[in-house]
Amino acid sequence: MSGNPDPKFSKKNQHFVPRFWMKRFADSSGQIFGRRRGYARAVQVATRSIMTADWTYTVFDSLWRPADSLEDVLSAVEGEAARLMARLDDVSTSLDAASRDKLAEVIAISGCRLPWVMRRAHRRMKEFGAALAEINQSADDRKFIDDLRERFGVELSENDCAALRSRPPEDLDATAIYLIGISPQDPLWPEQEALRGAKPIADILRKMDFALLDAPPNNLVLSDTPLPDSDLAAGFLLPLSHKLLLAVSPSAGGSGTCVRRLADPDEIKASNRFQFDSLLEIVVGPNAALLESLGT
User: Fold this and answer.
1) What is the tens place of the pLDDT at every residue in 26-80?
2) For a surface tag, which of 30, 85, 153, 289 has the fewest beta carbons within 10 Å of its beta carbon?
3) Where are the domains positioned within the chain?
4) CA 284 to CA 263: how far, in whole Å?
5) pTM of structure
């Protein structure tokens, strides 16, 4: 018997927006409607076939064997998120600090797991590797450090610079060339490494103001790009269901507050407008008329 058995692998098609979240935008009979990019009409859709892609969270080990390990972790996170959102559906439930902190984690993971965000992070990693190889083109370590901070948000030390300068320039160039050619699925640095960004993002969100906004039923929609993929610290609106909206905004006091109140019509309109304007392929909601009213 082999001492290194194949990892568990059975999940080919994976949702990048969880099905439980989409189902929270169904009408009272459980039906969900969707409007696809470029189409004026909305039709009934099934969650199993939308906001999904093949192999999105498939990871490979050092022998290039596929595994479901990341998908299994995300499934567990989804279960926790589903239970939290279900509890917050009760209008008498206040948004406490513990719920805020968990929502911050859910939001951060939801943003980092989007396929185009993972691809962008992988591309930025390659750009960062190429930038490190250019250290010998800069005579001033302080200027080099400031430049990388501005371009990549990474803080290098003078010791880091000394270590880079100690390597032969051809070695730095070879490393940069290797990184540029690396596959997004390479076990050394897969694109799913973008999910490591969820923790620092969640830490930032926990210091922001959170407001749960109760809306009239059947008034909110959700797209396959549910939240901004940059500048979250500037604030955003995130629909949690067809009648529950989350507003996240910068905190004036430096420590986030938690409140619950009624959503005003402008907030509902702004949320739906963002979801429609940012959609990649589809936006879903509880009725066709609402989706068809969002514009062209």
Assistant:
1) 999 999 999 999 999 999 999 999 999 999 999 999 999 999 999 999 999 999 9
2) 30
3) 16-115+207-292
4) 20
5) 0.89
